[in-house]
Amino acid sequence: MPYVINNGVKIWYDVAGEGEPLVLIGGSSLVRRQWDFMLPILKDHFKVILYDQRGAGLSDRPPAGITVEQWADDLKLILDELGIKKTHIFGTSNGSFVVIHFAAKYPERTAAIVHYGMYKLKDQAAKIARIGYKIIDEFGTGRMGCYYLVRLYGMPAEFEDWEVKRFEENISPEPWKAMHEALKADLIEDLKKIKAPQLLLVGDSGSLSKDSDYGSGWREVQRLCPNVEVAIINNAEGTYCVVTHPAEVSKVVINFLNRHRISSG
Questions:
Q1: Are 66 and 175 in contact (CB under 8 A)?
Q2: How far is it, in rounded angstroms, from Cα 207 to Cα 213?
Q3: Are 218 and 116 within 8 A, CB to CB?
Q4: pLDDT at 202 over 60
Q5: N or C terminus of the chain with fewer C-beta within 10 Å?
């Protein structure tokens, strides 16, 4: 399996499909598996780059010291390894932090971006993380612990078993906490620096919906970045729209990226 190594930490990545490059960045517990249902569609239109952020999945899982800065630099290293000078990026859930910081730090490497609007840890997100710490301390990250974590984040019932299995595969107790400690950042200044075309994409229902405190960041992004576009996926569960509504989300994303092609930029 392909890896890059950043200061001794191995970062797993993979490539599928042909076309303009598109990096997919999932949340801290699903990482690459967040895209299981969209990948078969997107790889027919783009050269899709998947990777697991340090702390989870097939990448190394440091027990402490993870930062958003490291996540962005890990992605740059992958792009360097692949010889990709400029790419579209789509991040959901707290993958949005990586998208925002990367776009601000490496504007010359950033084409169009799609994200959920998370640029800082809102009160609801911070409370969920603290409860998650307690669940892990009591039950670990085996089947029972992951079951309670999945319930905490509100995945629709028909996808619960799938998500529990993915959490079991991808997370370990201390690295999971370290990833959430990394999110204690406020990227509002980064948002002001972004020049790339942006699409904010969020579902309208569930505990992580556009109207929740957890999912409300898109409103501030819209205020700070006047040219940003917004797509609300109806009857979809907040950040989980990429799992529950893959065809609809893919259609919106493909349309947006085709209007902002790298080759015509």
A1: yes
A2: 9
A3: yes
A4: yes
A5: N
In CATH, which superfamily holds the domain spanning 3-119+187-260?
A: Alpha/Beta hydrolase fold, catalytic domain (3.40.50.1820)
Beta bridge partners of 14: 50
CA distances from 260 to 88, 111, 199 (A): 9, 8, 11
Asked if 214 and 128 count as a contact pair (C-beta separation under 8 A), the reply is yes
pLDDT tens by residue, 42-62: 999 999 999 999 999 999 999
Neighbour count for residue 28 (Cβ, 10 Å): 26
| Token digits of residue 155 | 């995945």
Return d(Cα 92, Cα 162) in angstroms, integer: 18
**In the chain, what are the domain boundaries?**
3-119+187-260
CA distance 170 to 34: 11
The CA-atom distances, in angstroms, between 163 and each of 41, 224, 240 are: 20, 34, 11
pLDDT of residue 219: 94
